[in-house]
Amino acid sequence: MWKTSKLFFWALAALLVLWQIPSCYNFFAVKPADAPFTLYSPVIGDFAMLRFDEEKRMRYTDASGREYTKEQFDSILPAFYCRQLVADGRFPDSICGRAVTLRQIQKANFNLRLSPSNLNAPQVGLQQLLESMSGRVDLTLPDDVFRITDTGIEFVRMETNQIDEEKSARFTEAMKRKGFHFPACRISGNPTARKEYDEGYVMLDAARRLFHVKQTVGRPYVRAIELPEGLVPEYLFITEFPSRRWLCFLTDTGGGFWVVERDSYAVVRTELPSFDPREESMLIFGNLFDWTVKVDRGGEKCFYALSAEDYTLLDSLTIPTPDRSWRGLRFTSPKDKFVKPRF
Amino acid sequence: MIKAIFYKEWIKTGGYGLLALLLSTGFAGYAMLRMARVCSLKGADHLWIVMLQRDAIFVDLLQFVPLFIGLGLAVVQFAPEMYRKSFKLTLHLPLRADRAVAAMLAYGVATLAAVFLPALAAMGGYLQSILAPELWQHILWSTLPWYLAGIAAYLLTAWIALEPTWGRRLIDGAMALLLLRLYFLAPAPEAYNGFLPLLTAVTLCYGLLAMLSLTRFRDGRQD
């Protein structure tokens, strides 16, 4: 017993050293390296960067090192700084030969942050399905939630904690009629009333086929989305951007990044190089002309400029951000919301 | 003999055990009352929505209650004996010293289980009536590391209390603090689910540490 106790004591001591020493060193001595704020400029056809120099002064440059004034910087990123340009009376009639209005620019602007910690997290398994066509300007939250079971979709009334058998049967029937195989293996929605419109959910069924499910005037709207040959979707991200151009983004099992157009349900592959949403975070700033996509790959930040028209790759830039932290025993990670030992 | 040790421990800690039971169920009951008040004011659906959209679990005030209950039990059980130096008498019983200490610790862990389980059962019982299984299980799973921390606090405090020298007590105390931090790292509810089996096994093994203190005590180490 004594030997076992001694062994256990030293094992615990070693565990604490492996956990606490690197953790203290990283906290006090390591400054996290980050890339400058970078956006693709359609005006100069290059990445524009905003960074701080050694004297903590803001510097505005492009990827080739050319310096800009603050006002010039606003002008080369007209979509991002559109309100500033309007306030200064400098908003252009056209950008890159295309006539634009402030409303057009603002409607097309979007940003999307995809973080692995949102995927690698405990899930409750209950969702809210809003009414997409209530006839009112503002959306309202429903008085029920739903869960996807092995045999169907089940709506539970929150006030009474009772299953709404009639509604559950109606939606299950509609989904099965469209060929949905229960249970769903992925589901993505944005159940909040603080948005302009509601597109319900996109779901992958048990056979990894893509479906769009929403509630319109209390009735189920279910649409099976045809996928290109060979595409096996992995993760779904509903968009609901003001432009209403896309239904969702998705990644495939090979790391490809695809968009699903809202009106035509066309599924189009972007020229974005491989992206793994379980390991890498992504930040997209999109506008009428292009998307700037930042992918955090751990030791480097990769920036990609995609054409907003056909999603072709316009330019790319990699900024190394070496991780100088000590590797030890950790129990939490920025990549997930679980507590578990990991080296 | 083991029965006699259990009886001795009951005489020492029975009063504290009842108080701990009151505290544990009282805090759990208060948390449930607050939820019932939200239900009566804003409706049960408000509770559901806040849980789903903000990842709230409404029982955060219970977080450190088991920890302090466990710590208190160890102090009540071991500190007076160590202070009055009557712990030596236990070592002269016709029973191996390590078995005697193991029986004392087992009594403590069983007492804590008896204190914590009614609180969990009361919460489960009430929550089932107003929440879907996914939600009430979400709440109970999220509280389990806190209750485990209560058992860890008990076993680690027993380790420190049985230690005969103050210098070593400080080192053990620092280690115990770091080990207890492990139960409160949760960035989200249910974050410990996958780690709970291993954490439970390690927590129960903290009982082995008391044997180190016992050996040092028997070896006559003192300040």
Helix content of chain B: over 70%
Total strands of chain B: the figure is 0
Quaternary structure annotation: heterodimer
**Using only CA atoms, what is the Rg of chain B?**
20 Å
Can you characterise this structure?
The complex is a heterodimer of chains A (343) and B (223). Chain A is of the alpha+beta class. Chain A has helices spanning 2-29, 70-76, 82-87, 102-108, 116-119, 165-177, and strands at residues 37-41, 46-52, 58-62, 67-68, 94-95, 98-99, 110-114, 144-148, 153-157, 162-163, 186-189, 201-204, 210-216, 219-225, 233-238, 246-252, 257-261, 267-269, 281-286, 290-296, 300-307, 313-320. Chain A has two domains: 31-114 and 280-323, no CATH class; 121-277, Lipocalin, CATH 2.40.128. Chain A is flat, with a radius of gyration of 24 Å. The two termini of chain A are 30 Å apart. The model of chain A has no long low-confidence stretch (mean pLDDT 93). Chain B has 223 residues and is mainly alpha-helical. Chain B has one domain (2-218). Helix content of chain B is 80%, strand content 0%. In chain B, helix 5 runs antiparallel to helix 6 (133-162) and helix 6 (133-162) packs parallel to helix 9. At the A-B interface, helix 1 of A face helix 2, helix 5, helix 6, helix 7 and helix 9 of B.
